[in-house]
């Protein structure tokens, strides 16, 4: 049984495995330019951000109906549960679907079909976080928030993702202010490929409570000090960082130094179908390659629950933390 954990940085569209992509393509009469699942799996072995994004958006064409989104989320939740995930805060990218003519209600209600049954079916509690694409305009983000208004009872917070460089957080000040006024929690990708100043800006201008990635904070000692002091969680994605070349190899990952610095780090899978592993695969990789002790792995698991948006259910958070404390590592685990 894997270490119990929360997953806080997970794009649901990034969980689309080749088998499900083909099944949905067949169901919807969508032609995929790949001979079979093996050929598609080969395409998943891209080497850089742009080829990843091209494939990521290309494959979204198979997601058309509520049932498609439900099947996608249900497949993720089953895999996550098998990897010890007890709570998942799931990102989705509505603009990528609205642009294809798929309505907000189709996306949210479809995901909810799976999320609403997740505890009963998989033993995984969930939250939904709606992300804005930062390479789209500020006006588009505002229109997206407006389109989401009828579904806000399903949505816990907002985030910011896609290509970071050249799209600083300040561009989204207005939509984050509007989201805050609606009572939504706020997170943002920052400091993955963008500079540490983007992390500072996300905190100061967008009021984010959690930073997604954030690993380049290590270039700014004053920022590290602030993140430690204010206990701002960082949602790191080690295998993703390797695939997208944020680090050269996993052995070069700053996670051990970040933990030593006192940062509240968590380990997550980002787009696991594409990046070579789900939540516990990331834990196993950092345990093995970075030589993290069992105490460190337990700390990462504790952090994931401390950083999760469970303020409306503190009893649950306490139960999860007790599970982490009681966990006994098997001999085969790092
Ligand atoms: Zn991400």
Short description:
It is an enzyme of class 3 (hydrolase). The chain has 17 helices and 8 strands.
Account of the protein in words:
The chain is of the alpha/beta class and 334 residues long. The protein has a single domain (5-309), classed as TIM Barrel (Alpha-Beta Barrel). Helices cover 48% and strands 13% of the residues. The protein is built from 17 helices and eight strands. It has helices at residues 18-28, 37-43, 49-59, 66-82, 94-98, 104-115, 118-122, 138-148, 173-181, 196-204, 221-229, 238-243, 255-260, 272-275, 279-289, 294-306, 314-326, and strands at residues 5-11, 85-92, 125-133, 157-161, 185-190, 210-213, 234-236, 265-267. An eight-stranded parallel beta sheet has the order 1-2-3-4-5-6-7-8. The model has no long low-confidence stretch (mean pLDDT 96). Bound molecules: zinc ion. Substrate binds at residue 271. This is Adenine deaminase. It comes from Streptomyces dangxiongensis. GO terms for molecular function: adenine deaminase activity; zinc ion binding. It catalyses: adenine + H2O + H(+) = hypoxanthine + NH4(+).
How are the SSEs ordered, and which strands pair?
Elements: E1 5-11, H1 18-28, H2 37-43, H3 49-59, H4 66-82, E2 85-92, H5 94-98, H6 104-115, H7 118-122, E3 125-133, H8 138-148, E4 157-161, H9 173-181, E5 185-190, H10 196-204, E6 210-213, H11 221-229, E7 234-236, H12 238-243, H13 255-260, E8 265-267, H14 272-275, H15 279-289, H16 294-306, H17 314-326
Bound molecules: zinc ion.
């Amino acid at each position: 049984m894997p270490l119990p954990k929360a997953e806080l940085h997970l794009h649901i569209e990034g969980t689309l495995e080749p088998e499900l992509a083909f099944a949905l393509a067949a169901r919807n009469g969508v032609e995929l330019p790949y001979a079979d699942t093996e050929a598609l799996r080969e395409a998943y072995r891209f080497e850089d951000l742009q080829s990843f994004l091209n494939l990521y958006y290309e494959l979204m064409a198979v997601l058309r109906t509520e049932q498609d989104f439900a099947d996608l989320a249900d497949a993720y939740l089953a895999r996550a549960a098998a990897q010890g995930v007890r709570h998942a805060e799931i990102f989705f990218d509505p603009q990528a679907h609205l642009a294809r003519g798929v309505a907000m209600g189709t996306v949210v209600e479809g995901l909810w079909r799976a999320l609403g049954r997740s505890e009963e079916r998989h033993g995984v509690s969930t939250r939904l976080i709606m992300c804005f694409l930062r390479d789209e305009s500020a006006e588009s983000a505002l229109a997206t928030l407006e389109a989401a208004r009828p579904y806000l009872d399903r949505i816990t917070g907002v985030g910011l993702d896609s290509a970071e460089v050249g799209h600083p957080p300040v561009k989204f000040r207005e939509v984050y202010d509007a989201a805050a006024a609606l009572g939504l929690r706020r997170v943002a990708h920052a400091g993955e490929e963008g500079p540490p100043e983007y992390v500072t800006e996300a905190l100061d201008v967008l009021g984010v409570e959690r930073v997604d990635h954030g690993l380049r904070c290590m270039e700014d000692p004053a920022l590290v000090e602030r993140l430690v002091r204010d206990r701002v969680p960082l949602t790191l994605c080690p295998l993703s960082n390797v695939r997208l070349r944020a680090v050269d190899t996993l052995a070069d990952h700053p996670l051990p130094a970040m933990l030593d610095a006192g940062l509240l780090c968590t380990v997550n899978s980002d787009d696991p179908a594409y990046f070579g592993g789900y939540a516990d695969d990331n834990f196993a990789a950092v345990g093995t390659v970075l030589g993290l002790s069992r105490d460190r792995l337990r700390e990462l698991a504790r952090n994931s629950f401390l950083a999760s948006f469970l303020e409306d259910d503190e009893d649950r958070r306490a139960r999860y933390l007790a599970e982490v404390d009681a966990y006994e590592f098997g001999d085969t685990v790092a």
